[in-house]
């Protein structure tokens, strides 16, 4: 039934996703409103104090893969003093994963290549205890205001904001200890938030984004120091934007993948799609479908440089 409603909105989308996940649960969760979640900003307050205060008004449930993350049930969390003062950041639970797996510590030099609106940037800054330096870059001028606003609101004093095409950073070879490429994507995972992403989805756009993502990840890898960690993520489920991008990096560089070990349910990565066969190594990536954890659809890969 829900699948047929999706088909009425975008027939081409359903025809493709019948090859990716045609389960009843997939469409049920794609149509289900997403649970609200937040991350406690430990640059300003400890987790226990926030949980004790907010538990007086809301039902909270810890996000299993992020010790500062909580699902919240009840209306009005964004009207609380905790939100206004930057003690909590409203952040989708699956999007908390990339900074968690970056092996962050104090005094690193980090590049967040596509940073706006800044959820992961502020999380990175938090895990570095405001030491070292985070270059928070975004290509779109129109998105810099919200990025700068969030960096200020959440008290991140180790962040420098830049406005560049992410590919610009490829010239800084072997420079950054950690790189996050949360790549621009077709946003299929966000259909749960807004059906406009279902209406807007086009295969032609997916293929164009895949080409862009491949050039971005090559630049990100060039900028990464030996022994450094590059995390690639998207909030979409199209193989061309996920496994195919990682396969391209593995084929063209000496990059190695590291398996992500977190208490998170996932779907097997796709090794073959539309006649293209990907490296067996992509099994180490994390492919999350909406029904796995009742979150957005998401994809994460952890890359290390020898």
From TrEMBL:
The keyword Cytoplasm applies. Pfam families: Methyltr_RsmB-F, Methyltr_RsmF_N. SUPFAM superfamilies: S-adenosyl-L-methionine-dependent methyltransferases. One of its GO terms (biological process) is RNA methylation. GO terms for molecular function: RNA binding; RNA methyltransferase activity; S-adenosylmethionine-dependent methyltransferase activity. Gene3D superfamilies: Sun protein, domain 3, Vaccinia Virus protein VP39. The active site is at residue 235. S-adenosyl-L-methionine binds at residues 138, 165, 182. Residues 26-306 form the SAM-dependent MTase RsmB/NOP-type domain. It comes from the Archaea. The keyword Aminoacyl-tRNA synthetase does not apply. PANTHER family: 28S RRNA (CYTOSINE(4447)-C(5))-METHYLTRANSFERASE-RELATED, NOP2 YEAST -RELATED NOL1/NOP2/FMU SUN DOMAIN-CONTAINING. Belongs to the class I-like SAM-binding methyltransferase superfamily. RsmB/NOP family. This is RNA methylase, NOL1/NOP2/sun family. It comes from Ferroglobus placidus (strain DSM 10642 / AEDII12DO). The lineage of its organism: Archaea, Methanobacteriati, Methanobacteriota, Archaeoglobi, Archaeoglobales.
């Amino acid at each position: 039934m829900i699948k047929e409603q999706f088909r009425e909105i975008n027939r081409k989308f359903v025809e493709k996703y019948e090859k990716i996940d045609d389960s009843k649960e997939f469409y049920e969760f794609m149509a289900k409103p997403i649970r609200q979640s937040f991350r406690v900003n430990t640059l300003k307050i400890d987790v226990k104090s926030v949980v004790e205060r907010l538990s007086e008004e809301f039902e909270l449930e810890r996000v299993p893969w992020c010790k500062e993350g909580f699902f919240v049930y009840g209306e009005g969390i964004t009207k609380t003093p905790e939100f206004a003062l930057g003690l909590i950041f409203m952040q989708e639970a699956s999007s908390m994963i990339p900074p968690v797996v970056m092996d962050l510590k104090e005094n690193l030099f980090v590049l967040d290549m596509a940073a706006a609106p800044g959820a992961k940037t502020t999380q990175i800054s938090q895990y570095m205890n405001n030491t070292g330096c985070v270059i928070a870059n975004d290509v779109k001028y129109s998105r810099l205001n919200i990025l700068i606003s969030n960096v200020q609101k959440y008290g991140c004093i180790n962040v420098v904001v830049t406005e560049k095409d992410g590919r610009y950073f490829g010239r800084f070879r072997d420079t950054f200890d950690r790189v996050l490429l949360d790549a621009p994507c077709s946003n299929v995972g966000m259909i749960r938030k807004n059906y406009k992403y279902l209406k807007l989805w086009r295969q032609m756009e997916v293929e164009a984004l895949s080409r862009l993502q491949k050039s971005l990840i090559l630049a990100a890898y060039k900028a990464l120091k030996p022994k450094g960690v590059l995390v690639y993520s998207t909030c979409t489920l199209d193989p061309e934007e996920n496994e195919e991008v990682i396969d391209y990096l593995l084929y063209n560089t000496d990059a190695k993948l590291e398996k992500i070990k977190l208490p998170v349910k996932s779907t097997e990565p796709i090794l073959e799609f539309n006649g293209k066969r990907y490296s067996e190594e992509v099994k180490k990536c994390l492919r999350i479908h909406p029904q796995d954890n009742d979150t957005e659809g998401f994809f994460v890969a952890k890359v290390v440089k020898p």
